[in-house]
Design goal:
three-stranded parallel β-sheet, 9 strands, alpha/beta, TIM Barrel, globular, six-stranded parallel β-sheet, binds 3-phosphoglyceric acid, 213 residues
Amino acid sequence: MTPAEQSLKTAEICRLAPVVPVIMVHDLAQAAPLARALVAGCLPALEVTLRTPCALDAIRAMAEVPGGVVGAGTLLTPADVKAAKAAGAAFGVSPGATPRLLDACAELGLPLLPGAATASEIMLLLEQGYSVQKFFPAEQAGGAAYLKSIGAPLPQVKFCPTGGISLKNARDYLGLSNILCVGGSWVAPQDKLASGDWAEVEALAREAAGLRS
Ligand code: 3PG
């Protein structure tokens, strides 16, 4: 799958809702009810980070939830890409980009949202065909003001910024012409997952889904 084809797919996924929940699952039993709550709250695209032992099984469980589009985040190596694909991930997300990681996504056919934080990193990915990228870590790397400036010379690159984004500052990003959506963990807080408060997660999702309206 070429980078251009990957970006077409990730653009489609990023346009599903204003927010992609960035999810960390510590207990596999949380996976399906969490996905159901987020999808019910109108956030269908979900990123499950490969940072916990049960992350791949969580992707498997969440991929069964009707209406969800489940991706794997924190992809660092070709082995991560292979495992994510085998678990049924529909897309991948990485904090940065390396040639080996990009090659693996092309070979295995996993649409990747590759991470970049500087003009040169963005240009290198664009040169390869990635016109949709993750801007990470968004707030720490310069925030919405930085992305607005990047949009002047590089308007053809569209972003999903993540890192430090919440309900408070999401609109600063979503108002920019080069932003397709934002990613954030605030819609899937660990305390609500631990207590199984799915109604509250759904309410958080609904609030996030309304950010563009
Ligand atoms: C991450 O990879 O952890 C994401 O960027 C989410 O960041 P956040 O927890 O600040 O939303």
